[in-house]
């Protein structure tokens, strides 16, 4: 069952009134409020209600009525309205910014093949796994981040208030200062004089990052740096490859050809090295190569994955293998996230503790000279 993505995109249902104006209004109102957590519940409920024999329109009405936030309720009511006026479910979500092209094509395939119940169930599982990955990483990093922020604030407080107090005492008593003390006092002076400039610089960097975040050169540089960071790079690689196997598993379940699965997944996963690799893989498959051979040329895919895919192609068990790979990657991500948290906590404490100790030692060294002078 082969199809062309370009053809699907052109098959847009025409209606008698201007849907674009309505949908654009929805986009401006909602932004990205329909999060992955909400999508997990959304697709899971659709699958359950469709399997219970309820029509798609009634299913969406029921889900819309149970929404607590007015924005979410209005968004889903807008989808129901477009369906009532003759559009398909996939076309209804296509023009809403909260839904990705990957979701649109998955739903479109489900509608065309009569497997919408299964596709929505798999989409629910897809977002549940993504949410689990995100929670795992956040839980692993939350404590180290809190420790880091607290320690940085303590250091900034010492530079802003504690060091100047000691500096006044040293000046009043004309104490000869060691090199380390002079450097800390100089750092404190720079911090006090240029504090707001420092804050403005951070703000400018954040604004510039927001502007260039979608540029290819920026994505390439950032992803290259991240992947070279010990341990963190490997964790990121497994996270994105896990998303890839999960997405392909969903599409394979819907009986989508491998080439189309690669095309859809490439649009969905926003990670430059993986997108570039999938672009090359797509070209190789079009030239007649199989998936395992095409993936072998890219270091982002590990040898274990390629070996399993080769077996899958020989035994025609792509769906099972991709699901198995997704499970393995999720387990590895959980393990590595916990390990990262375990490693980061003592490193952050030791580093910032040493920094605080250096400041204190620098302030107390002249006190010995001062005590001898007073004595």
Structure description:
The protein has 375 residues and is mainly α. Helices cover 81% and strands 0% of the residues. Helix 8 crosses helix 9 and helix 16 packs antiparallel against helix 17.
Strand-helix topology:
Elements: H1 5-10, H2 19-30, H3 36-51, H4 56-65, H5 70-84, H6 89-94, H7 101-113, H8 116-173, H9 179-193, H10 195-212, H11 216-228, H12 232-253, H13 258-268, H14 272-286, H15 291-295, H16 303-315, H17 318-374
Keywords summarizing the entry:
single chain, 375 residues, mainly alpha, 0% strand
> What Rg, in angstroms, do the CA atoms define?
28 Å
Average residue pLDDT: 79
Report, as a whole number of angstroms, the end-to-end distance.
94 Å
Low-confidence stretches: 5-31
Structural class comes to: mainly alpha
Shape: elongated
Count of helical regions = 17
**Main sheet specs:** none
Strand fraction equals under 5%
* SS elements, strand count: 0
Q: What is the element string, with H for helices and E for strands?
A: HHHHHHHHHHHHHHHHH
Helix content: over 70%
How would you summarize what this structure contains?
By secondary structure, this protein is mainly alpha-helical. 81% of the residues lie in helices and 0% in strands. Helix 3 packs across helix 4, helix 11 (216-228) crosses helix 12 and helix 13 (258-268) runs antiparallel to helix 14.
């Amino acid at each position: 069952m082969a199809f062309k993505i370009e053809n699907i995109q052109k098959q847009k249902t025409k209606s008698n009134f201007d849907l674009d104006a309505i949908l654009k209004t929805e986009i401006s109102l909602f932004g990205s409020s329909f999060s992955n957590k909400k999508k997990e519940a959304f697709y899971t409920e659709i699958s359950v209600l469709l399997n219970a024999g309820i029509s798609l329109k009634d299913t969406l009405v029921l889900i819309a009525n149970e929404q607590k936030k007015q924005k979410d309720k209005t968004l889903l009511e807008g989808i129901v309205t477009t369906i009532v006026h003759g559009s398909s479910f996939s076309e209804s979500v296509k023009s809403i910014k909260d839904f990705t092209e990957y979701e649109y094509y998955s739903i479109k395939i489900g509608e065309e093949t009569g497997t919408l119940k299964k596709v929505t169930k798999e989409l629910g599982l897809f977002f549940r796994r993504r949410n689990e990955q995100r929670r795992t990483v956040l839980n692993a990093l939350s404590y180290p981040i809190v420790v880091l922020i607290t320690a940085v604030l303590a250091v900034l407080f010492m530079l802003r208030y504690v060091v100047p107090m000691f500096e006044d005492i040293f000046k009043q008593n004309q104490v000869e200062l060691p090199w380390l003390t002079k450097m800390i006092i100089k750092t404190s002076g720079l911090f006090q004089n240029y504090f707001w400039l420092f804050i403005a610089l951070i703000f400018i960097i954040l604004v510039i990052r927001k502007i260039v975040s979608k540029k290819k050169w920026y994505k390439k540089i950032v992803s290259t740096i991240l992947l070279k960071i010990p341990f963190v790079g490997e964790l990121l690689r497994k996270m994105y490859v896990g998303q890839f196997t999960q997405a392909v598993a969903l599409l394979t379940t819907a009986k989508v050809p491998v080439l189309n699965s690669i095309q859809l997944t490439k649009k969905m996963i926003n990670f430059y090295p993986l997108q570039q690799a999938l672009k090359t893989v797509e070209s190789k498959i079009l030239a007649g190569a199989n998936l395992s051979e095409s993936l072998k040329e890219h270091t982002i895919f590990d040898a274990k994955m390629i070996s399993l895919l080769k077996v899958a192609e020989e035994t025609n068990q792509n769906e099972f293998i991709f699901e198995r790979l997704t499970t393995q990657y999720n387990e590895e991500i959980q393990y590595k996230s916990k390990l990262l948290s375990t490693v980061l906590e003592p490193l952050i404490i030791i580093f910032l503790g040493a920094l605080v100790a250096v400041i204190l030692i620098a302030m107390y060294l002249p006190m010995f000279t001062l005590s001898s002078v007073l004595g």
